[in-house]
């Protein structure tokens, strides 16, 4: 039997980040294909064929061809156990992505070769840099016309402020895309090869083809050799240390849609990506190979199985070994919990898991015990891992059930979906009306869709616009402070919150009520 050390060192847990439509979900599918987890890769565009991306399991994702929730997938490949977290690309669901990035040891950044660095990519990259997460870059869609490779490298370094090292280099692009010059494996991988056995062409010590080949007659080949020489002389040096601390990103070129360059990327990624690392807690660093089991909840998802109306809490294991049926302590409450029902994932396909170790992501069936950010451990020391980020909601709607006879289903649905963390629930102090707060409009659309399809409740949502949100540092507040420009509400934890019409209304309130201390607990933008 492999030791705990061997098992932990074989784990690779990463998130894929990108701007929408850069090819993130397609790359995820192809990685699963190489891992043997699926037999046939569906793309998000293949709606007419009835094939959908494995990682897009929610009905609205299949309809729109977008990812709006983080999916977890696991597969074995070459003695490694790989955990992929496919994150939402849409900016309205950044909060889910930010929390997911707290649960990984590295990140894969997908860049569209034609568009370069886009807004969402930049935001998510900054979160990775803030945490010192190693970042691997896959420049996608080389079979289409795009920006020049040297221009893309310069953009990565200038816009993101990170050093790059191209592990391979494209030979042409678009209609003239011939393949990649693999610097790391000292070979050329042909994009189109009639003979599969002749797909890889070896290079000699000088970096040129060992045997005569028609490729040598192409001006693209000569141009590539010149660019490789330029990279060797003026480019950054390869450094495993810099990769590990997130200051140098290995760059790979390829085409996820045609599966070209994906396996080459996967092999190199597994070699240089870190195994599970120590985690910061209120009691100091927690060693992933510690005998004490520990982990934290970074996501809660309702109704992954519509037939059973279940709730799954996603747990990142941070130390020790999980065994089904074990008893742990929930640090927030100090109460013991028996972990008898657990699962592992391939998107919405699940299997009962009996054992898992640090680095793995497992699902715990939740009957209302867990909250996002909860720490569970077998240690007697009730420590907590780092607090997970939460955004301040900016857009608000008033929500009611269209059919008053369905109030029970309405309340159940709204409370379960709110616990997932994408939307926040508030209740007005005077009228006890329900208000929903979110970062983006799409979150409301997804909420409405899920209430209708998962809880059979039609809802009415009345927009009340954008608000400036501030919590109150007090157990009691004069409810007469409610006005047309500052709505007094309570959040789902019964804490008082003011929703101000704008920044001017906030400043006016502060001037008039200097004794009332307002604060914003959600400090990540």
UniProtKB/TrEMBL annotation:
Main subcellular localisation: cytoplasm
GO MF terms, alphabetically ordered: GTP binding; GTPase activity; translation release factor activity, codon nonspecific; translation release factor activity, codon specific
PROSITE patterns: G_TR_1 (PS00301), G_TR_2 (PS51722)
Domain of life: Bacteria
UniProt: GTP binding residues: 18-25, 86-90, 140-143
GO annotations of cellular component type: cytosol
GO biological-process terms attached to the record: regulation of translational termination
Record-linked PANTHER family: PEPTIDE CHAIN RELEASE FACTOR RF3
Protein name: Peptide chain release factor 3
Species, as recorded: Peribacillus asahii
